[in-house]
Amino acid sequence: MPKADLDQFLSATVAPADKWKLLAPYWPAVRNTGYAQATRLAIRELYGVEDLSPATIRKVQSGYEQTRRAGFYRHILQDLAKIESCQVNSLGGAPFHESDMPTLLMQDLSIVGMFAGPNVGGLAAPTGIAVKSLADWHRVIAWWFERYAQYAVGVKSQNAYSRDIDYARVPAEQAEPVFTKVLQKEPVSAGERKLLEDHLFWVAVDQATAHGLPVKLHTGYYAGQNSMPLARLRANAGSATELCRLAPDTKFVFMHICYPHYEELLAAAKQWSNAYVDMCWSWIINPVAAKDYLKKHLVTAPANKLLPFGGDYIPVEPVLGHAIIARRGFAQALAELVEEGWLSLGGALELVEPIFHGNAHRLFQLAKKTEVLKRVAWGR
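Given the sequence above, the corresponding structure tokens read:
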């Protein structure tokens, strides 16, 4: 689809029927992908529509407008998708979002702006700290953790979209001159930028560890199109093991199974006690590969190192379709392992509750966080 057509398709001012005209030439080519299957399942469950076509577009639009009422997040996520709670990475300016539904939309504390850039103006202003040195910036980072760590379920970085996750332990004295250049808006080289990012990454991670928060890192496939350097992705799993070595007390959650390099990430999860694998997004990137990963994980690495699903959407509706795909793939993986003789039927069924429920509760301390979030001032 040409960019001009895509911009029209995503525009809020274009009528649904006209959007279908833009999509129609491409829909047959993509309707069987994981992305499109999640959408098709969602519109089937929500609006009673089996597929997109000229005859159904108006019914989809009407169903969307009728569904989008106060409380529709809970209805879609909990009543229909049977999801207990979500973990949200705020994409806004602040590292933490004070959600109106704090026990449903649990929040990560975003650390990207703490080390990439860093976002001095945006993050320092709420703290009241005048940043004139690297030590001052350390205090800003500490302020965000002191304020929100008790409410956050983890910390999150998607910095792998810009670089590999090969963060070295860089002493403050080496990072200080580069940070001074950043404050003075002087140019810094790529090597200097990496040195500063590496130092500040560990400042944030060490804060997370001190507050008992797992560290979630994007690995593997990129969202979007025409932007992904595959060679960089290939390095992610190896770099992940070095992070585990450098911080043995930190629980690292490596997201998206590092697709397409999931065999390497599985090896990391098997080898390193502080490596966990989150299958979020993977079921719609490649549902067959996700099922393949799950089968291999269950006969290779500890089952308590696995988080089997995450919707990974901004809009809520497609999460329903994604959850259906994930449950189907999970059932297929278990059935195949039983049929192939790797698991007994009883042994397979015993894995369901711990993997779908227990692992996340334990890793992210969900019972404790829920009790704290029930009492926050910003909830309703």
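The chain has a mean pLDDT of 96. Try to locate this feature in the token string yourself.
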